[in-house]
Amino acid sequence: MTSSRKKNAVTVLGATGSIGDSTLDIIAQHSDKFDLFAVSGNQRIDKLAEICRRFKPIYAVTVDRLAAECLEKRIKLDSLDTKVIYGEVAFHSVCSHPDVDVVVTGIVGAAGLLPTLSAIDAGKKVLIANKEPLVMMGQSIILRAQASGATLVPLDSEHNAILQCLPQRERLDLPEKSVSSLLLTASGGPFRTFSKVELAHVTPAQAIAHPNWSMGTKISVDSATLMNKGLELIEACILFSMHPSDVRVVIHPQSAIHSMVEYIDGSYLAQLGSPDMRIPIAYGLAYPERITSGAEKLDFTKCSPFEFEEPDLDRFPCLRLAREAAEAGGIAPIVLSAANEVAVGAFLNLQIRFTDIPTVIEFTLDTIDMISDGSVEQILSVDEEARRLSKGLIERQFSG
Ligand SMILES: NC(=O)c1ccc[n+]([C@@H]2O[C@H](COP(=O)([O-])OP(=O)(O)OC[C@H]3O[C@@H](n4cnc5c(N)ncnc54)[C@H](OP(=O)(O)O)[C@@H]3O)[C@@H](O)[C@H]2O)c1
Hints:
- 46% of the residues lie in helices and 14% in strands.
- It is of the alpha/beta class.
- The protein has three domains: 8-154, Rossmann fold (3-Layer(aba) Sandwich), CATH 3.40.50.720; 156-321, no CATH class; 329-400, Rna Polymerase Sigma Factor, Chain: A, CATH 1.10.1740.
- The protein binds NADP nicotinamide-adenine-dinucleotide phosphate.
């Protein structure tokens, strides 16, 4: 018997990245449920061409014309029907197209802001991996989703875990408080046990070698500085309407518990699983149902004992800066995220040391003098100014 249910048409933004890999894997496993409508990439055009050959999406989107022309040649050689489009309007159209049901946001950094907003404003089911737009937009992103009827499902394993641990009526919007706090778990990254002196000499190669998760370069460095946990703290406040003081971070090196919800009666609900992004992505794609993910089952005899530690804000000041930005609100989270992107880029280019990353961010937060009315235009101007200030400091203080 064949199912008469319509397949879900999915746009995968950042299809050539790590989130893209895991999403395409789930789509391939469940080709009876999902069709690939569009994919996007930036520099890895060979990989985008390979994805087009394998999945035959209707559209492939690139950032610029040169990359589009290069991809177009490959698509023609393979005699595929995929249409190649590029630029801001192209991203908008594959996120808001009436035929699209689901948009997966796997672009890294602030570059994902406008496509994410296009998907939300069009009322799509939006699976959010790309946390930086959330951090930049704050609560207004939730208001936009409420206005358009978009369903937001976080893919970050921590927020996805929290979503799974919340009672149905309180998901993503907690009106009556039966929840007293959220506990975000963090592996502690590759430098969990390093001294401050050792941290000053770590290399980009060491920073991107995460002990438990396989991820893109920027998020791997963010995990090593604990800025990723800081961005997640801000993300949790926005998604679950929590005050920063009610979101705690606990180091859990085994990465088996992905986060916990503490209820007012003293109960804690936790979600556990292998450190494999296919689990939250499968949950998001099927939400509110469940499908298989192909992830390895958790072997409790191998991942025990479970350990928990307080994060050390002296050795990892990025988490302190993020918490302060969450508490300050206003433009602080936008500045934090923009300065962090610049500083991480400079660290990867060997312009600054690992321990200079928080210095650049703190300088930018202390120096910027702007206000924002929360409009997208002003958010983008704050982002631009924060990048200008961060780059200026790096050139003055760390170059040569
Ligand atoms: N990886 C994870 O396990 C994980 C977990 C939770 C949350 N996240 C979040 O998900 C997002 C993606 O992470 P990732 O690890 O998948 O990163 P990644 O492997 O570096 O992939 C990034 C993707 O974004 C594309 N891209 C880069 N710059 C772009 C631009 N200016 N415009 C449009 N597209 C651009 C890249 O294209 P090219 O590769 O073709 O250049 C690639 O497809 C991040 O915000 C991260 O924090 C990731």
